[in-house]
Every structure is written in C-alpha cells, then in structure tokens.
Amino acid sequence: MPMLRSDAVRQIAIVIAFALLVLPTLAQAEDGYDLWLRYRPIETSAQRVYRAQVTEIVAPAAASPTLAAAQRELERGLSGLFAHSVPVVAQPTRTGALVFGTPASSPAIAALHLDLAAAGGEGYVIRSIAPRGRRTIVIAANSDIGALYGAFHLLRLIQTRASLLDLDIISAPRFALRTLDHWDNLDGTMERGYSGHSIFDWHRLPDWVDPRIIDYARANASIGINGAVLTNVAANATSLRRDYIEKAAAVASVLRPYGIRVYLTARFSAPIEIGGLDTADPLDPRVRAWWRAKADEIYSIIPDFGGFLVKANSEGQPGPQDYRGPTPAGAAMTGPSRNPRNYQRTHADGANMLAEALAPHGGLVMWRAFVYAAENPRDRAMQAFDDFAPLDGQFLANVIVQVKNGPIDFQPREPIHPLFGATPRTSMSMELQITKEYLGQATHLAYLAPMWREALGTDTRLRGENSTVARLLDGSLVRTPHTAIAAVANIGTDRNWSGSHFDQANWYAYGRLAWDHQIASEAIAEEWARMTFSNDEAFVRGVVAMMMGSREAVVDYMTPLGLTHLMATGHHYGPGPWVSDLDRPEWNPVYYHRADAGGIGFDRTATGSNAVSQYAPALASLYADIDTTPEDFLLWFHHAPWDHRMTSGRTLWDELVVRYTRGVSRVHAMHQTWQTLASHVDAERYAQIDAFLGIQEHEAQWWRDASIAYFQSISRRPLPEGYAPPEHTLEYYESLRFPYAPGAPGRTAAPFRN
Amino acid sequence: MPMLRSDAVRQIAIVIAFALLVLPTLAQAEDGYDLWLRYRPIETSAQRVYRAQVTEIVAPAAASPTLAAAQRELERGLSGLFAHSVPVVAQPTRTGALVFGTPASSPAIAALHLDLAAAGGEGYVIRSIAPRGRRTIVIAANSDIGALYGAFHLLRLIQTRASLLDLDIISAPRFALRTLDHWDNLDGTMERGYSGHSIFDWHRLPDWVDPRIIDYARANASIGINGAVLTNVAANATSLRRDYIEKAAAVASVLRPYGIRVYLTARFSAPIEIGGLDTADPLDPRVRAWWRAKADEIYSIIPDFGGFLVKANSEGQPGPQDYRGPTPAGAAMTGPSRNPRNYQRTHADGANMLAEALAPHGGLVMWRAFVYAAENPRDRAMQAFDDFAPLDGQFLANVIVQVKNGPIDFQPREPIHPLFGATPRTSMSMELQITKEYLGQATHLAYLAPMWREALGTDTRLRGENSTVARLLDGSLVRTPHTAIAAVANIGTDRNWSGSHFDQANWYAYGRLAWDHQIASEAIAEEWARMTFSNDEAFVRGVVAMMMGSREAVVDYMTPLGLTHLMATGHHYGPGPWVSDLDRPEWNPVYYHRADAGGIGFDRTATGSNAVSQYAPALASLYADIDTTPEDFLLWFHHAPWDHRMTSGRTLWDELVVRYTRGVSRVHAMHQTWQTLASHVDAERYAQIDAFLGIQEHEAQWWRDASIAYFQSISRRPLPEGYAPPEHTLEYYESLRFPYAPGAPGRTAAPFRN
C-alpha cells in the first residue's frame, strides 16, 4: 500500500509536472493561427454545465466526407472546450446526446420527422428535444453541408457561452453564392495582400498540398463561405493551362468536403495567349469553340468547378470591347487609337460567350462591372452605369454581374453604386474588399462590418419602404436566377492569416453577413471577440467598443465629409492629396477633391457631372440638394465653399480640421482601451496588437497633418482655435517615399543573379 | 476521507485528461518551427539518468543580456527535455549543480581557477568536477557569448543522448567571422529563396519586430553564427537611408545578446542615388567624405555594426571599375563602350575607400570576388583570378575578399576556386550557398556538408602536405588579419524556416562547420537527426544514410562527371542543357558542356583556356592530365571523346548514361528508406518529406531523361544495354516552361489595380 500510494503520487506528480510544462507552451502558441476556431479549455464552471448538456456525439450511419468533417469538428471542438474527449456513439445511449446529420444519413434524425423545409439546401435546424424523456440536441439539415454548418453553429454557442437549453434555431443563408476572391498571382505574390505569400503554393501543387488548406476550408465553412476564386482578377492565361488546372483540382479536392467550390479567373485574351488563335473576338466561332473545349477540359478534371470570374476592359485588361494584345505587367492603358484590332463587342457578348461554354456543366460567369476608361471624359463614378445599365436583360441566366459596393474603389466611405436596383433582369453580386487596401492595410484597426452594413442597408425606395440594396440583391424584392455576394480576401501565409489579429474579424464578419446581412455589426464583433480572445465581459465590452468606432476613425483621419481617393500612388500607403501627375486623370487625388480657392468637393449634381441622376429617384433627390445630402457624403456630391455652414455651426474648413483631428483622438482612445485589457490576452497577441495600434496612432497623425497642410495651402484659412498645426511642412510630407510598401504590384525585383 | 479521495481522484482525472488532450495538440504542432532546438520530453529512462546529473542551474551573479539568454535557454531546454522544471539557484546547493558563466560574472567559476586560455574569445570549456565531493558540471568561458555557446553545447549533449560523465570539453571556433548572407530584398522578396518571404519585415520595422527574430537568433547562436547580412548583395541604396538604418537597428538590438552582429550590403553607386553626388568614383574626395559620413551615421545608430558586404562590377552591379548608373532591375549588363563615365579604378580602390570609412569604428568590408564580364572572351572560370590575384597586398587590413567555393557559381560539384592560396597577404573568406539554387531548391533532399567539406578539404600542397583550403583560410598556415567564412541563407517565413525539413540540416551544418571544419559530415548529420527527429538508432542510421548519399545523387542526375551549369534559364528550375540563346555567352549551358560530334567537356588545359594554370602547382598538374584528373571533374577540365575509356571500362557516353540513371535510382532508394521510417516521425513532418521525395523522384527522372535526350542528339550513340530511353522526345523537354518557379528575380507582377 505505501508503495502503491507513492507510485500513484509519482504518477500524479509526473502528469501535473507535464501539464505545467505544457501550459506555457500552449500560451506561447497563441499566435492567432487558430482564428475563431480556438477550442481551448473553457472555465471549469462552464465546463460543468456544458458537459452535462452534451455527453455524447451520435454519428450518422452513412458518413460522407462532409459529415465526417462535421464529426471531426465536433469531436475536436468539444474535447478541446471541455478538456476531455466526448465519446462518439452509433445510437443515443443517454441524456445529453448530440445527434447530427440528415434524414438520409441518420436514422435517428429520420425518426424525428422534423420539418426541414425552412432550412433549404444549405441551412439547418438546431433543436432541443426529449424523445422518451431523454434530453437530446439535434442538428438536422436537408444536405450534408447544412449539417456541417449547424455543427459549427453549435460550437459557436459554446464558444460564446450561450445557453444550450430549449434550442430552437432555424438558419439558412440569404445569398446563395458567398465567395472569397483571392487576388493571388501564380508566382505567390498577392495583389493588395498584407499578410505574406499566397496560401496556394502553385509551384508545388498538385504533388504537395499544404495542410493549411484544410484549416482554410474549416474556417470558411465555419462562417458559410461556399466559393473560392483562387486567382487574381488581373488574370494570367497560364492559370487555364492543363497543368495549372490539375493544380487547382488538388485544392478543390481539399475544399470539396467543406462545401467550397473552386473558381478561376479567365483572362479574356487566353485564346490568343495559350490557344494559338489570332483573335479573342467573342463572336468568332473559333474563339467560342476554344472556350467550350476549355470548359469541357476543366470539368473533366474538376467536376464541380464553380466557374469564371472576369475582369474585362478594366484597367488594361483585355475584353470584348477592344483587344489590345497581352498587356505587359503594370503597363499603362493604351487607347483604341493605338489599337490594331477592335472587336467592338459588348460586355454581354463577352460574358455570354463564356456562359455558353460553362452552362452544360452548371458553371457560372461572374463578370465584373469595375470599368472606366482613360479615353472617357465622363465622371469615373458614372462609367460603369453607362456601360452596364443598358445591357439589363441581355445576359444569359448563368451570368452574374459583380459590382463593387461603391462607384469608385473600396474607399473608407462611398455611397452605394448606382447600378444596384438599376438592372432588375440581371443577377447582381456585391463585391466587398476585406483586405484593407484603402483603410490602413494590415496595421490599422478598422472593423468593416459597419461599412458593409451601411452599403447593404441603403434604402433605394425602388420597391417602396425598406427597398434596401441587400433586399434588392437577396431575392426578397427582385427575382433573378442567382443571388450572390463576394469579397476580396485578406488571407495569406502569415501565421495569423490576415497580417493582424483584428483583421481576422473582417474575414469572419464577411462570412457572417454573407450568410445573413441582418445580423448587427456589434453582435458579430462580440461573437468574434468571445471566440478569438476571451468571454470576460469587461474585455468583450472594451474590444467591441474599439471595433465599432474604428472605421469612423479611419474615415475621419483619411477622408472625412465625403472626400475620397486621397492616398499615395501605387501602394496606396499614406496620404497623397497633392498627387496630380499620373497618366490617367482619374488616378489622381486632385481629380477627386477638386480643392480650389473657392472650396472643395466634386460637384456631381446637375451643375456638375450629374452622377446623382444615375441613382434611384429617392436617392437622386436626396443627393442633389446640398442641404439634404448627409454630411458624410457632402464633398462626394458637392463642391462646397470653404465657409459653407455645417450643422455643427462650424464652417466647412473648420469642420474638416475638427474631423481630421477627431480621427487621431479616436485612435489614441482605442490604443488606451487596449492597454487596459492586457490581463485578458496572452502576451504574444497583446504585444503585436499594441505595436500595431502604436503604428496606427503615428500614421493617423501623419494623415491628419499632411492633409491639413495641403488643404490649408489652398483654403488659406487659419486652423480653428486650439487645433495644433501640422508637425512638418507640406514639402516634407510631399517628399516622403515608400517604394517598398507592401501590396502594390510590380515592386522592384533584384537583378539577375548573385 | 472518501470525499478527499474522490476529490483527489477528480483532480488527477482532470489533470490527466488535460495532459491527454494536450499531447495530440503538441503532436500536431510538429511543423518544424522548433528546428533542432526541439526540447520535447525525452524517454523516461533517459530522463532518470540526466535529471540526477543536472539537478539545479547556478545562475551567474552578474547577468548580462547574453548570460540571461543562456540561463533562459538552459531553463527552457532542461525543463522541456526533463518534463519538469530545474530550479535556478545562486549558489551550488547539492550534487548535480550546473554552473555556467565567466570568472568575471560567476564567483563559483572564478573560485575554480580554470585554465580558459584555449577557449579564446568565443570558446568555452565544459567539465565535470567534484568540489568537496559534489558532482558539478561547469560551463566556463572568457566571454558571455562563450558561455551561451557552451550552454547550447550542453543541451546538445542531452538532445543526442551523449554521456554527461567525466566531461572535459574545450571548444573554440576555427573561423573568427561566421556570417549568414540573406539575399533578401526590401520589398520582402528573397532572391533564390524557396521558403516564403523575408523574415525581416522592413515595412513594419522598427515599430514592430516579429518575435520570430528572437528564435532566429537562438538558432544561429546554437551553432555559433556571429554575423548576419540583412540585405541582398544585389544591393539597394535605400537600405542605407536613415529610416532603413533605424529599421536595421531594431533587428540588431534583438540579435545583440546572441552575439550576432548586423551587416548591410552597400550599393557602390549609393552616393549618387541617395547622396545627391554626380559620381561614385572611389578616389573622388566628395565620395570618400560621403561614405565616411554615412559610416559615422550608421555607427551612431548601431554602435556594433559589423560592416558592408559588397557586390561590385558583377552582373550589372555598379563598382569602381566602371559606373553605368542605377541599373534597372534585371537589366542585362551593358559594356564600357555604352558607358558615359568610366572611373577605371580597381576593386582595391573601391574596397579601401569603404574600409577607410569603417575603420575608425572597427567595421569590416566583405568584398566579393564573384566577377566576370560579357566583354571578356576569357573563360569565365578564370576572370575573378585575373582581377584579384594581382591585387594581393593592396587591400587595407579591414577588407576581406569573399570568394565562392568554386570558380563558377554554387554548382552541384565544382573544383575549388583558384584564388584560394593565391593571395596570402589578403584576408579571404569562402562563400557557400545554403539555399539550394542549383541543387533542387527546397523540394530536393541534398545534404551539403559533404560538398562543403570537399572544398574545404582540397589539398593545395602550397605549404606542404595537408595544405587544405580550410587551413589556408583559418590561419593555421597563413597569417591574415581576419579569418572568415560566409554562406547564403535558406531562411524565410515558411513555418519550417527553410522550405523543407531536411534543408534545416544545411543551415545547421553550415554553422557547425564554420565553427569547426574538422567535424565529419556524418557526425553533423547524426547530431541533427537526433535533435530534430528521434534518437532511435534505426531511424538515425536510416536518415544519416539518406543524407550522406543525397548530394552525390543530385550530381548524378543533374551534372555528372564534371558537367556543370546545365539548368534552365532565370529560375534555374529543371534541365536546360540545350539553352544557347542568352545575351551573355557564359549564361548559356552550351558554353559549359561544349558537346559536339567529337565529344563533350570544357578544355581548360594548355590546349584550351588553360584555367588549370591558375591553380596551385600540385593541383594544376593533377588537372592538366586527363589521366590524373579525378573522373568527377573530367568534363570540367577536359573535352573528352564520347568513346573515352573510363575506369569502369565503359565509354564516356555509356558512363554518362549510367551516372544519370544511378542518380534516379539513388533518389528512389532514399524515398523507400524514408517510407520504412514512418513510425519514428510525427505524421505532419513525415507527410511533407514523403511528398517532397516524391517530387524529387519525378524531377530526377526528368533531369535524367531530358539530359540524355539532348546529349544523345549530339553523340548519336545508342543507350547501353538495359537502359530505358527517355520517356518523352527532346522537343517535349525543350518545350516545357515554368514562368512562375520560385526564387527567380523579376517575376511577373499583376497590373496596376483591381
């Protein structure tokens, strides 16, 4: 007995020592890789409650790869959160059983005869039931993927410490297509990427598929993303070469069980570049035959290929309107005058040609409406509408026109794009940008859900009250063959995926809003903070407050009052309101702010470009009048005098200075809040976020000072009482150069050899 | 009592459950990030032994940052390996104390009056002693860094399961400077890098320093590396801008405690590009003054700055011989004829100018001898000797001439560079390449220690028997102000640092050989395998065998019998023996193999370029005669007829085919061996290595088949009996294009915006 006891004691000692040894190791491992799927053991008090409510996992009889993934996730999640493993059984054996699957795959679920109609093809129900008095939680769906989505939902409830009592959840996505667009190049670089390399290792594919792709799929499935465009919209015909299709197929095979289809970008001139033809004219039978054969080839290798995303006749990309030959990387646009061959076809001609090739296989064409031309003197904000509005009704059923949320280009604040609601006979998709090209890139904290909700929630009144853009797109008000939403990813090989920990929240928020645009930004922020960091109430309150104010802060210190597109050239890092020397007029900040002695802003009313006329009547009249235009859009639609009286009672000039300054203070406040939360976060993530907030504070000051220095040189007005002058001279700010800021294409490469 | 017991049991259950939960987590975490500093708990049997031998860590009284790092490493290492924490005490309290430090920092060590003369400035002694009958292990050094190196040595003994009894170790480095050269660009790309992005995040420095840099410093210190050149030798003047010096200073502050000095590459034309001068003439007083001021500025920010590494008048880089203005990225070399200004200075003029600027601060100039000129019809292998041999004696004392191991460019096998031994009045450094630009890049397994030992061990007979290159460089035979060795790093942001797990061994082996070139390649491989994977004897035997044969396998399937430089253009990925269309003759494989109807090989004897005449007499006579030339160098020095009779009895043609084929079989055998070792490795690392060996098998076959198809088109001879013909036609192999293979500079970038 003494022997035994001492043995037992030694055993315990060893295990405890080991656990103690390992705990710091885990703490160290808080590098953000786990994202919001962070299944660390929860407080023992909560463990006691949840363990009693989930005692066993009832596996479906027929385990498809998708149901197997759901089971793996539940095992991994529950055993991690509960700090003990939850048994998997074939039949419910006790109270607290968790039953998941479909009526087809699970006799236990079939026996319940649940009404799953509302769940639709991808949704699910989660219910608390008590067959024969045994408390049971059931996750049921019509499809395997619905069951996987439901499994992630259940885990989220525990991760956010929600009650598992009397569950009666029905959830189904509002958009059928919820895609991530990767602006990733075949050489591993990422356009507008601020988080390392592309996660798609094209060179080693298909022989080597990084296991990281599985975690990428898990993260996307956990928020309902069901499509991934693997390649940059500034497309490369090589990605349609057979060997590259085989590489894409290897990625598709990893994503498939998680309900994610693979899409590729199609370079319009591919028939010439890799097809050996002398034209890419969409009406040329040889061109149409080439695309049909290419589509057949792709589907023979990737049977569930999603389709093509196309950037055509946009910023130098070839397209149906005119062909100017393979454009050298980064080359400036050349006009039709210098164009040897000219198809003179429409975007509909181009999109429909590809749609015809994909239709037999159920593939889709996502055709971007991000077009504007140097030759065109029209207000850049109006050109996409000019091109696409007249084409309504001409697109085939498997074409979706993909429109950026605003008429310019993912700025900190834009009004909605006038095409939304203007093409009721066309399937439309809203393209958002998760990677923060214009909102401080990876180092600035800017939570984007409020910006996206602002666009989705804009009421056009086109179909009466509450004709929001979201409802025009999601099929509630207008019937189109497809409903879709897309966003440009911020994902790379950085250990934390997104370059910064807070940028993970934007990936998360996009998925959640793509599933249900009715969820409040604040609710999403709270979910994310609880899953990613801590359920401590004080911490959650603090972090959610930081997030909710962050985007307005960026608007204040970069582009207040409807100003836009004031960033430096190329990399878009830092302020450049003075830039006026770029090839294309609409690439220059001065094109947008139009500041002069008289005032500032772009007149888009009838006395100006009349861009307001493209909007739905209710919005058009709102924006046409400087007195009814929301001050947040004032200088977007109006050229206002410096002394224009604002609702604050201040002059426009004074209000500008106040807003710029407020932006800096808001960042300072965020940083201070963060420093009060240190005790709730592991040291590693705390330190990086703290350092990044420090960078954001410096850079907000830089934006504020450089912008005021420049605009003051035009307004010639004093700063309002008590507002500090810029730290440096305008010349100083204009002299700064950052040739190696990340994310810009065509960065300097080293000479040939060493 | 029952209550208590059940409580105790629950406690135990929870701890055990947690440990069990955590174990798989750890197993998952076997992604290679820990490198050879992998302090996982060792077998309990071994734990029992070592725990008794190391019972406490005696901290030095005065803890410098370096001694603190040593203490942290010992605590981390021992507690990890022992699975329990080892107490740190101020004085030895029991048997098994581990005492470390210097006589100055540790009274306990001072009291021992050890003779530390042999340890020198960076070395250490490790001894088992028994003061007052108490078994004690002492790690003593004259310097804090010596103590840190000794601490890593002690941990290595345990990691490799060596005995800690009767320790009597004296270790000191044979080269004073042991540097890693990073060919990293300011935009984060890496030239010839196959492991992700640069670990130096220039954009976010100095505000954000990735903690990964600490682990980089630990890994380097563990193998004695004491210098890091942060920037590409294809240099960028921007890296000498004040803001970039401040970024480098932030890195230096992290490396400093680990005994690593920071160096930068100096672009020779910087005085023009960032200095506002109209010349970079090294004899121009304004240029000299600019460099002096720049050096003063650097040292005011980085007090222990190491110095400059310079690539001048080499592959388009500006230099003292002629200046042709900032060279556009990747631009081809332009000759003096098209050169507006021409300094006509020597490499000594250029190096000495920089040396003068650095000398007051104790800085060094590492001046590369990797030069050859398109205008020069001479055998490329001879040009560096032509330029530098006559300058012997003209370089200032703080100049080191850095010479690649062979006369061409890091090929799978080269004879030594003829400059070694030819400049006895000049400090010389051998530059090796860890990143495997020409040996299969990251996917092929090629352990480089045998290749490096082959070069270092080449006996020139210049100072009698055993006048090896290593002894000519390390000060044993020739006295020069500095002894040094350098290597191009293979380190990037990939989770496993080097792109592949086995490439970690090359980083490790470089450091170990830089410390002591006498250590056998096999011993280093064994150390690394034990520390990185497992101490299982069967596993170690198998892995060491794979590693030891791997480089010869690459030579066989890429460049057998002294063939060289047969790779494809630009990215150097895959075979291109047929390439003959590049701007510069010596960039074309046909320049090197010279295959024709009569035979194959480059005649470097008196009847040819007479490159043999540049070698030490003993080597010159050896290589001048085809019958005494080692067959491994046959075609390097001789143009031999296809029917030349080899020692095997076969004709040269048949022998070529046999060697190519043997290379493929060797890779197949390595792969088979690996598959027998699965049970000894975690699943994650096993799978990646298995996939990469699969890629190497395909690519070895590709090299073999493409090379035989091409050479057979010239030799017009049949394959020997029983040797399979190439799988495809020569046309097929010539048609293959890989525009996005990694590591090449100037890869396609995407257009301007999206």
Fold topology:
2 copies of one chain form a homodimer.
Chain A: H1 2-28, H2 44-53, E1 56-58, H3 65-82, E2 88-89, E3 97-101, H4 107-110, E4 124-129, E5 136-140, H5 144-159, E6 168-171, E7 177-181, H6 212-222, E8 227-229, H7 242-255, E9 261-265, H8 270-273, H9 285-301, E10 307-310, H10 347-358, E11 364-368, H11 380-388, E12 399-404, E13 427-433, H12 449-456, H13 469-473, E14 484-488, H14 504-515, H15 521-532, H16 537-558, H17 589-593, E15 599-600, H18 617-624, H19 634-637, E16 640-641, H20 652-675, H21 683-715, H22 730-735
What is this structure, in a nutshell?
The structure is a homodimer of 754-residue chains. With 754 residues, chain A is α/β, with parallel strands linked by helices.
List the main descriptive attributes of the protein structure presented here.
9% strand; disordered C terminus; globular; 754 residues; homodimer; 22 helices; 8-stranded parallel barrel; 6-stranded mixed beta sheet; alpha/beta
Q: What does this molecule look like?
A:
The structure is a homodimer of 754-residue chains. Chain A is an alpha/beta fold. Chain A is 37% helix and 9% strand. Chain A has 22 helices and 16 strands. Chain A has helices at 2-28, 44-53, 65-82, 107-110, 144-159, 212-222, 242-255, 270-273, 285-301, 347-358, 380-388, 449-456, 469-473, 504-515, 521-532, 537-558, 589-593, 617-624, 634-637, 652-675, 683-715, 730-735; strands at residues 56-58, 88-89, 97-101, 124-129, 136-140, 168-171, 177-181, 227-229, 261-265, 307-310, 364-368, 399-404, 427-433, 484-488, 599-600, 640-641. Chain A has an eight-stranded parallel barrel. In chain A, strands 2-1-3-5-4-6 form a six-stranded mixed β-sheet. A two-stranded antiparallel ribbon of chain A has the order 15-16. In chain A, strand 8 (227-229), helix 7 (242-255) and strand 9 form a beta-alpha-beta unit. In chain A, helix 9 (285-301) packs across helix 10, helix 14 crosses helix 15 (521-532) and helix 16 packs antiparallel against helix 20. The longest helix of chain A is centred in the last third of the chain and has 33 residues, at 683-715. Chain A is globular, with a radius of gyration of 27 Å. The termini of chain A are far apart. In chain A, 56% of the residues are buried. Mean pLDDT of chain A is 92; it is low at 1-28, 325-340 and 746-753. At the A-B interface, helix 1 and helix 21 of A face helix 1 and helix 21 of B.
